[in-house]
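Homework help thread (please don't just give me the answer)

Our assignment gives two proteins as sequence + structure token strings and asks us to describe the second one. The first is just a warm-up. Here they are:
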Amino acid sequence: MYRLHQELIGLRRRHRWLHRARTEAVHVANEQLVYRSAGDGGRLLVALNLADAPARVPAPGAGELLAGAATVGGGSAQLPPHGWAVLAG
């Protein structure tokens, strides 16, 4: 938990614009959520999967994986069970 906290604090420090960012839902399902945060020319996508099985969720404009775990391609992200990912947007 400590390492995860450090990783996310580092992500926040590298993207200082996040404290002024606007957030919008991209995909909302019973066990998945994808949202985009954007501001000052920067964008991030956050994808969450609460299901017990892997899930493919839409991730329009997703770039490299910045934190978490996912396979990205073709405008979507494959998340592991109970997985999450922060993607360059």
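The one we have to describe:
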Amino acid sequence: MIRLQNIEKVYRTSTVETLALSSINLDIAKGEFLSIMGPSGCGKSTLLNIMGLLDAPSKGDIKIDNQKTDHLSDKQLAAFRNKKLGFIFQSYHLINDLQVLDNVELPLLYRDSTAKERKMLATEALEKVGLANRVKHFPNQLSGGQKQRVAIARAIVGRPEIILADEPTGNLDSAMGSEILDILLQLNQKDGTTIVMVTHDENMAHKTHRLVRLFDGSQVQ
């Protein structure tokens, strides 16, 4: 589902060159749940952003579902991401002025779907994460765990084949973190969604199919 070959990422300024990723080779199978671990600043989020086509590598090739994406325009890339990928972030990125249902519907606004279809899919996604009774709430009326559930619902509302999660439990206590991981495991097991999760939690990482470790931008395991 995701293939990275000889990926390198260099950030340059007028005075400094920083090697963020070096010689990353990684194949992620359809339906796999992969964890990425490593110390802060080792390149985990950079790698996830490259997988999610939010950033381009300095060198190397990326294929998503056997399709190369380096030739796509910004508009085509956005459409491809919207169809194939769902994103979950540590800090939720919900819009406080929108009700829960409207937050979840957001990715569907960029598709050719009716208001009725958007509402149906958003309600269905919220049911999957156990928040069907919170559709009219605003984010500031929710706990941290509930906000992250809304963020997961938003990530899955378009039925993407891949979910990329960057520290999805990082702002939560251990009990809420376990609930969020259980939802991700269910999405993987029941729906066959391919999931890549960056985490600092060793216990959570070992509940996934495979663990990749990074150190100073290189893959060490």
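TA reply:
I won't write it for you, but here's a hint about the kind of observation we're looking for: The CA atoms of residues 46 and 91 lie 17 Å apart.
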